[in-house]
Write a structure and sequence with these properties.
Blueprint (H helix, E strand, L loop, with lengths): L1 H22 L2 H24 L7 H13 L12 H4 L7 H35 L3 H25 L8 H22 L1 H25 L4 H20 L18 H7 L5 H12 L1 H20 L4 H22 L15 H26 L7 H30 L1
Length: 403
């Protein structure tokens, strides 16, 4: 069983690296560099404005810490044929699951430590915690994630823990209570309780595995759901065979279709409907736009804000490129009496309209209580120039290389 898990883990890493190389290409890495730099700068500027602990500091820290506990799922790497082929070794599956738990816990703890480290300055400034209390709370967060993961293993053996009430209490209510104690009473009490509950969770795992057998159906379904989330993330950047896009009829968006493309032309009709009805491209553009609006709103007005503004317009243009080849697998588009030039013209027209809308949304998101109208004007000019360059030069070159 130990060798089986290591084999599957290596295959899992190979799959992840295959898609990571496609996701983190040169353009995306540069974009992430600027985005995280802008977020770090905005975070530091916001902390500088907090001179003393604020009343909303502890409630906000409670919500963020509770969300951090939820990051990282149990990765069993169980496959659909396992209930048939591994059923004779059900009693030996405990060693396999313990390895899966240890791997999942390591990944989750790294995420927890990283997120807590980012939140620590706010705990010191906005909440007013001293260094010792912050360290103790951080230890408690590591312990809470350990308990969270152990309960996930127990739920695979005892169906009682799969009920919504038990699951909510174990993963949300109990961690929330311990975090409240650490923020409002004493971090020492939280550490002590976390250690006691953590040790008890190991005893619970051992006792449950001895008195119950693995619920194969639940294990397979949970792992399939976890992998589907990963595949959907990768599918936002590249085609993933395991994820099939779905088309939704949205009658309330018919007016947008008419505005986007000329419905009397072949590709104006296809591209406008493919963009609005397709969940992948339109959803990603909407998410990028919303995230961009939030970032430019919170980053202080200045040149960094302008750079992030232009960066998000570029990111949207990159995502639009996949729309150009959306219908290439259909045999009918190859027998239409439509030239490649007409197809490129319709695509660039729709892409330009989308980029204009995104630019307007980002400009609206840049409006704060005290807007810098000079910087707003600079961003407006930048948006107009960038949309023009992207649609006439960048997108034209990219789609011609695909033709």
């Amino acid at each position: 069983m130990s060798k089986l898990f290591q084999t599957r883990l290596q295959a899992h890493f190979s799959m992840l690296f295959k898609y990571w190389k496609l996701v983190f290409n040169d353009h995306f890495v540069i974009a992430l560099f600027f985005m995280f730099g802008a977020l770090a700068y905005g975070y530091s500027q916001a902390l500088d404005k907090i001179k003393s602990p604020v009343w909303w500091g502890k409630p906000l820290a409670l919500v963020v810490l509770l969300l951090i506990v939820q990051l990282g799922r149990l990765a069993t790497l169980v496959e659909k044929p396992d209930p048939v082929f591994l059923l004779p070794q059900t009693k030996q599956i405990n060693r396999y699951l313990n390895q899966a738990r240890n791997y999942s816990l390591l990944m989750a703890e790294l995420i927890t430590i990283a997120c807590f480290a980012v939140l620590s300055p706010f705990l010191a400034v906005g909440v007013g915690m001293n260094t010792t209390s912050i360290i103790l709370l951080g230890i408690s967060m590591i312990g809470l994630k350990l308990i969270w993961m152990n309960w996930s293993v127990v739920a695979l053996f005892d169906r009682k823990w799969q009920r919504s009430a038990y699951d909510f209490n174990a993963k949300w209510l109990d961690p929330a209570l311990l975090i409240v104690i650490g923020l409002y009473l004493s971090a020492v009490i939280t550490v002590v309780i976390t250690i006691i509950v953590g040790l008890s969770s190991f005893y619970l795992i051992s006792n449950t595995q001895k008195s119950n057998v693995l619920d194969w159906r639940t294990a397979v379904d949970q792992e399939a759901t976890r992998m589907q989330r990963i595949y959907r993330f990768f599918n936002m950047f590249t085609d993933v065979p395991s994820v099939q896009g779905t088309i939704h009829r949205r009658r309330y968006l018919d007016w947008i279709i008419k505005l986007l493309g000329n419905q009397k032309t072949t590709y104006g009709y296809l591209f406008s409907r493919g963009l609005v009805r397709g969940a992948d491209i339109s959803g990603l553009i909407a998410r990028l736009t919303i995230v961009g609006m939030l970032i430019v709103f919170f980053i202080p007005q200045g040149w960094l804000n302008v750079i992030v503004f232009g960066l998000f317009i570029y990111l949207v243009s990159v995502q639009l490129i996949s729309l150009y080849g959306q219908f290439d697998n259909s045999v009918f588009v190859h027998i239409y009496p439509v030239t490649e030039t007409e197809k490129q013209t319709e695509f660039r027209l729709i892409a330009t309209k989308v980029l204009v809308v995104v630019t307007v949304c980002l400009l609206v998101g840049s409006i704060t209580q005290k807007p810098d109208w000079m910087m707003m004007g600079i961003k407006f000019v930048l948006g107009v120039v960038e949309v023009g360059v992207l649609s006439t030069v960048y997108l034209k070159g990219r789609i011609q290389s695909k033709a």
